[in-house]
């Protein structure tokens, strides 16, 4: 039976057709997202075990961290494409649920593990604070995705910082390696932004191309740093600055724009498969 036949049958009987519980192409992108998040955690964990076995206590090696960062960037690309593929070719009845579960792994648990590896395994300064910050990141992503699942889709704004951007911001803080207390404060701020009612507009038209170019620039800098390109520190700081400026500047831009327009804020919510 075709999708048209199913809709006609549903109209006649008054019953919605049962969702198709089998994987389609978009779901494989989602599973790739989850797998990359898992592999990033495995990369960091195995690297730390190797250091302990060798009697080395200190920051993780750059190559190990870079490999984990690249895996999470690939996870973000998979998360970007699964929704587009689903809209073009159709999705399955499991698509939205799979997307949320994958996002918890790649953009919740994996960044939280980055924080633990940075704040507790690689230094002795922060005590339990890095663990609390890591827990805040994980719980913020879980709450954000649960809230997203209960809301009707909107077209113009994300309510709260989208979890892939939140994960990127957390990893950026870790890569910059600030003093522990400053880094923990920044990570708590990112966790709050994810569950806040701060509006992040969905880029459209020329703005979409500008934001995309900005993101590609930051990702390009971080990727070049990850593969040990020349001027690595400059690339790291440039890419990190682009990420943090974008995430923190957008809410202020929205606020200023609305005040100039003289209209109150609205609270639309994200569309399907984009948590």
Automatic annotation (TrEMBL):
UniProt keyword Membrane, yes or no: yes
Membrane-crossing ranges are 25-45, 65-81, 101-121, 127-145, 157-174, 180-196, 208-228, 234-256
Q: Name one GO molecular function term.
A: CDP-diacylglycerol-serine O-phosphatidyltransferase activity
Please give an example of a GO cellular component term from this record: endomembrane system
Cellular location(s): Endomembrane system; Membrane
What keywords are assigned to this protein?
Lipid biosynthesis, Lipid metabolism, Membrane, Phospholipid biosynthesis, Phospholipid metabolism, Transferase, Transmembrane, Transmembrane helix
Pfam families named in the record = CDP-OH_P_transf (PF01066)
BP GO annotations: phospholipid biosynthetic process
EC top class, as a word:
transferase
Q: Tell me the membrane topology, using the record's own terms.
A: Multi-pass membrane protein
| Principal localisation | membrane
Query: Do you know which InterPro entries this protein is assigned to?
Result: CDP-diaglyc--ser_O-PTrfase, CDP-OH_P_trans, CDP-OH_PTrfase_TM_dom, CDP_ALCOHOL_P_TRANSF_CS
Q: What is its EC number?
A: 2.7.8.8
Record-stated family: Belongs to the CDP-alcohol phosphatidyltransferase class-I family.
Q: What protein is this chain from?
A: CDP-diacylglycerol--serine O-phosphatidyltransferase
Q: Which organism is it from?
A: Marinactinospora thermotolerans DSM 45154
Print the organism lineage: Bacteria, Bacillati, Actinomycetota, Actinomycetes, Streptosporangiales
